[in-house]
Amino acid sequence: EKKESETALKLMSDKLKEIVDKDYLTGLYNRRYFYKKANSEFNRSKRTKQHFSLLMFDLDKFKMLNDSYGHAAGDAVLQEFSNNIRPLLRQYDIFARIGGEEFALLLPATKKHEAYIISERMREVISRLVIPFENNSLKVTTSIGLADNYEGITEFEQMMRLADKNLYQAKLNGRN
Q1: 94: closest CA among 164, 148, 34?
Q2: How many CA atoms lie within 13 A of 25 on its CB side?
């Protein structure tokens, strides 16, 4: 009985951890978990003097899509976006939904030029994506901001601001 109770408790604990760490819609990590892992990775990379990169994604014209087709369509797009990026990740990458249509990806042991190649591959996959929704075929593009820890960065929050600034610049340059 004791063994069964311990097993049941462990299963419940694991399930609770998943609920706390994951975004319910996409199954990706949530913002809280992402920041915890990102700060840990940032500190590790400083200690070991190893590169790591950060990508921030924003789905282009998402509000217009949501307003035109409804929130269920927006949810379908968020899920398909996540499902199409997930297979491109390495086992140790950390991908999270950090806000409505905003996502962040930590790329440990990845230099800036490598992160750029990865981001471009992801951007192309999303730009070719066609999402069936009711009687419509929805298309979406993403803009991506990139930062790495070797740009005079002393704390992870600076990396986030730089990636966000670069994301904004990508949007100003025409999106996608």
Answers
A1: 34
A2: 19
Within the chain, what is the greatest distance between any pair of CA atoms? 64
Of 1, 4, 18, 101, the catalytic one is 101
What is the per-residue pLDDT across 29-67, written as a single tens digit (0 to 9) for each?
999 999 999 999 999 999 999 999 999 999 999 999 999
Dist. CA 149–CA 85, nearest whole Å: 23
Token pair for 76: 């379908």
| Placement of tokens 């950390």 in the chain | 94
Contact 155, 42 (CB under 8 A): yes
Rounded CA-CA distance 91/52 in Å is: 15
Residue 138: Cβ within 10 Å count: 18
The CA-based angle 67-72-74, given to 5 degrees, is 55
Q: Coil, helix or strand for 103?
A: strand
- In the residue annotation, 6 being an active-site residue is answered as no
Distance CA 85, CA 64 (A): 22
Distances (CA, A) of 91 to 60, 66, 129: 27, 32, 23
pTM greater than 0.85 (yes/no):
yes
Using DSSP, state whether 13 is helix, strand or coil: helix
